[in-house]
Specification:
single chain; alpha/beta; Rossmann fold; 8-stranded mixed β-sheet; 10% strand; elongated; disordered N terminus
């Protein structure tokens, strides 16, 4: 079992909360019903309010249309799903400027202060200050409509919903549509103003850029004339001197290559055999002459074999060979001279081109400094021209975009004329009142339960004290009708039963009325009687084979039913043929003598007083009752020295003596938190039973009583939960048993 000191809520605590709600369900229902009724009553006198709704779509403009991004100085990060854009447009819808436009349009073009001036005051009259103007009913309605405007962006969309409320449904409808139209118009105007300002800015800048371009071009031309720089191609900005230098350089390169080739031929002709020279070998005439010389030598060789040198034909051939060889040598020498001449000519040409190149290089080098300044002026001209062309193009595009007038707000759902008011909504008010009352009722119940620390239901005592709960005693008249006539009829039945020989009545006719202390004897077949028998069973089975024989019954405070429990348990013990002695140890306020209709002239106080107990036997003061097996030792005469008497050592002797004569001894004691009698007697008994009364005993008192006995090292057998009304049970406990025993009771009465 969890203790109250445990952190968090145990299942027992949750169940306790649920039982609390079930127990007070009608109170909670009453609060809920009252809240619903209050909600209806509050809504009835209210003025009906109508609501108009319109929806706007925020479009994403193509800022790159006609390259407008390059001409628009304002950067925007717009996208179809950008929530920041919706929030921005929502704030613009709530702006003061837009609201003033709407109010002025609906007020025939006359502006209205959105915040109405306060009423005229006596101080203004005393100080002779001007009084604020009073608003007309129309102006009041317009201002109320303006204050009621609600802007709601729809997540994950480009839709903004706008709501307007007013007692005048026509005004709500007109205000919503006017505000939507004015917002779209304002968006278009703002965009047009931006493009207009952009166009004006570009116009001024173009004028300045054109002047700068003209100045830079004039400066370029003047410098070119002053420096003597000439250009053959304006598109390539090529200087004449540079062109000439490039041409000489190209010719010099060609001449050098040609000179190298001819020098190679010449050196080859000087160092090689003439017959091996390529020019000689490749010359057609020399090849033909060489062929003829070879042929003549062959013929001479053939004739020399046969004829002598004087042979005429041989001599003729010899003469032709000599002439032909001389011609061949001359031609070969001519070719070698030509190679030499070509080489010398190429060398001279290279020298001349080299000199011209050096001279032209000097001239170009002298003009480089002038060309640097010229290029600077030239780049400035090009930059100004490019800037001028770009700005001129953007000006044309900006003018075209402003003429198109694209808007980024579109009205997709114009407001309709509302047909029924949105406030007051009586069903909604009733529902809110119902739920509010329901929760207030729950809060009230829990607060009352927290402030009321009295034990409510079975199990509460066990939960707070961690002691076994021996049983629960229902209220004494559980099975009886609650009216006075019905009670008298029940008493008559009990009396008639006694006259017929049943053991349901006492010998004294005055005692034949139903008493809580005698329920177990007077109404044996009843729920209350069975509850006491259940407590007795728990007591008998609590000792694990060694049941307690001397029990002290006490409670935290007075009036909690100790005497009722003791007397009924004594009767239940007598029913099982156990000799039982009931001792009334409440020496200040005795009660058992009245319950069993016994005299109280002598009793426990006599045995404890030294001057009275001498010669008096304890058994002689015990009185028998009308119930077989049940004896009572009354308290005796009241005395102010009760606490001192209980400390007498003779009390232990008395209890020891009675142990051998009775099967069980039940001792009724005063409340232990106020009087120490129960603590004194509890040390001498086998155990103590604490009695707690429903709706009266608080958990703090019961825990304090338990702690006192624990400090005294007194065994506490358990608790008895007394006078509990089962009709408050959330589970209908005892309902079937009540029906069963009521039928049995009346059946026995008829017999």
């Amino acid at each position: 079992m969890a203790s109250p000191s445990n952190e968090g809520q145990s299942p027992g605590e949750l169940m306790e909360h649920w039982r609390t709600l079930r127990r007070h369900k009608w109170s909670i229902a009453l609060f809920a019903l009252g809240g619903a009724l209050l909600g209806i009553l509050v809504g009835i006198p209210q003025t009906p309010v109508y609501q108009a709704r319109t929806s706007l779509e925020i479009l994403s403009l193509n800022e790159d249309f006609l390259n407008m991004k390059q001409s628009n100085p304002v950067a925007s990060n717009e996208s179809s799903g950008d929530s920041s854009e919706l929030q921005t447009q929502s704030k613009l819808l709530e702006g003061e400027e837009l609201m003033q436009r709407v109010l002025a349009k609906l007020h025939d073009g006359k502006p209205i202060a959105r915040y109405a001036p306060g009423p005229a005051t006596g101080w203004r009259e005393i100080l002779h200050l001007p009084q604020p103007a009073r608003l007309t009913p129309r102006e009041n309605l317009l201002l109320k409509a303006a204050k009621s405007v609600k802007i709601r962006p729809t997540p994950r969309t480009r839709i903004i919903e706008m709501l307007v409320q007013s007692p005048d449904r026509q005004l709500a409808w007109t205000f919503a549509n006017t505000m939507a139209n004015e917002f779209a118009t304002e968006s278009l105007e703002n965009r047009w103003k931006v493009t207009q300002r952009t166009s004006e800015y570009l116009g001024h800048e173009i004028s300045d850029t054109r002047k700068n371009l003209e100045k830079s071009e004039d400066a370029l031309q003047s410098y070119a004339r002053q420096s003597g720089l000439l250009f053959t191609d304006d598109s390539q900005n090529t200087n004449v001197s540079n062109q000439k230098l490039q041409q000489i350089q190209q010719q010099l390169s060609l001449a050098t290559a040609e000179r190298i080739a001819k020098q190679s031929r010449y050196e080859l002709a000087r160092t090689s055999a003439p017959d091996s020279l390529p020019d000689v070998l490749n010359d057609p005439g020399l090849r033909e002459a060489a062929s003829k010389i070879t042929d003549l030598r062959r013929q001479i060789a053939e004739l020399s074999v046969t004829y002598t040198p004087e042979y005429s034909k041989l001599q003729r051939l010899q003469a032709q060979l000599v002439a032909l060889e001389d011609s061949f040598q001359h031609d070969r020498a001519t070719i070698i001279d030509r190679v030499k001449d070509d080489y010398q000519d190429a060398s001279r040409r290279e020298s001349l081109l080299s000199a011209a190149y050096i001279a032209q290089t000097k001239e170009v080098t002298g003009q480089d400094e002038k060309a640097v300044q010229y290029n600077i002026l030239k780049r400035e001209v090009e930059s100004n021209r490019q800037l001028y062309d770009t700005m001129l193009q953007q000006l044309k595009q900006s003018s075209l975009a402003s003429a198109l007038g694209a808007a980024k707000v579109r009205i997709i759902d114009p407001a309709d004329l509302p047909s029924k008011p949105v406030s007051p909504d009586l069903p909604v008010n009733a529902g809110l009142g119902l739920f509010s009352g329901f929760f207030i009722g729950i809060l009230f119940v829990f607060i009352r339960e927290r402030t009321n620390r009295a034990l409510q239901n079975p199990g509460d005592a066990q939960f707070w004290t961690n002691l076994p709960e021996l049983g629960t005693i229902p209220t004494a008249f559980l099975g009886q009708p609650r009216s006075l006539t019905a009670r008298r009829a029940a008493r008559g039945v009990a009396a008639s039963s006694g006259s017929s020989g049943k053991s349901l009545t006492l010998q004294n006719p005055a005692r034949n009325k139903i008493m809580p202390e005698m329920m177990t004897w007077q109404q044996k077949p009843s729920i209350v009687s069975e509850a006491f028998r259940g407590v007795l069973t728990s007591i008998l089975f609590s000792g694990n084979g060694h049941r307690p024989r001397v029990l002290v019954f006490s409670s935290a405070g007075p009036g909690e039913g100790k005497t009722t429990v003791v007397s009924n348990l004594g009767i239940a013990l007598a029913e099982i043929e156990t000799r039982v002695l009931v001792i009334d140890a409440d020496l200040r306020c005795p009660r058992l003598n009245q319950v069993f209709d016994l005299p109280n002239d002598h009793g426990l106080s006599n045995l404890l007083q030294k001057n009275l107990r001498e010669g008096v036997s304890p058994e002689s003061l015990v009185q028998k009752t009308d119930i077989p097996g049940l004896d009572v030792l009354t308290s005796g005469p009241s005395t102010h020295a009760a606490a001192n008497l209980l400390h007498s050592p003779f009390l232990a002797e008395i209890l020891t003596r009675f142990r051998g004569q009775y099967g069980m001894i039940l001792i009724d004691t005063p409340p232990m938190l106020h009087i120490t009698d129960a603590r004194v007697i509890g040390r001498l008994a086998d155990a103590v039973v604490l009695v707690a009364r429903s709706q009266q005993t608080t958990r703090d008192e019961l825990v304090a009583a338990k702690n006192r006995f624990a400090e005294d090292h007194t065994r506490i057998l358990g608790t008895v939960f007394n006078d509990w009304d089962p009709k408050h049970s959330p589970y209908g406990l005892y309902s079937k048993g009540k029906s069963y025993y009521s039928k049995g009771y009346f059946a026995n009465a008829e017999r």
